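Recap from last week: sequence in, structure out.
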Amino acid sequence: MDNALDSINAVVNPTKKIKDLEQKLSFSETFQNKINLADEHLENQNFEKAIEFYEKALQGKYKEHPYTINKALKCYYKIKDFKKVIEYAGKIDLEKTFRDSLCFYAIALEKCNFLDEAEIQFKKVDKRYSNYPERLELSRFLIRRDKKEAAKSVLDDIIMEINNMIETNKRKYKYIYKESKLLIRDI
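Predicted structure tokens:
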């Protein structure tokens, strides 16, 4: 019964959970307590606070903890600190373990004007029947680079793949489909 009440309190008063986690951290400054507090700040979209505690967790023997580095990378992306995104991406294996962060890295590279490297990273997400939001972003990147034929090819593939899906999956990717149709029309 207490757990159910705690869950309701956390939804109604999210700061209570943060205060509880802060108190737990002040009692015991463990890696896990820092991560728990950072994760809660992330869930509440307080990215700066999340970064603060991820950074604290990334000290000592956990300074190269890949999952924490990846979470910090995503927070830095959210606050548009693209140099930090690039720095953190260099510390972990995005392609093997954190493929969901490849697009963040590619966008950061583009924002910092490393266009050729950004294109290399973007192309890693171009896998058939998957990564639709990332592939849509790849096509936008290619359009910005005036590589319209390559963008059209990516968009044609996305449209064709979604057209071949069952109705349930088509609904899931409705936004991607509409955006792809609009982009291809404007090329």
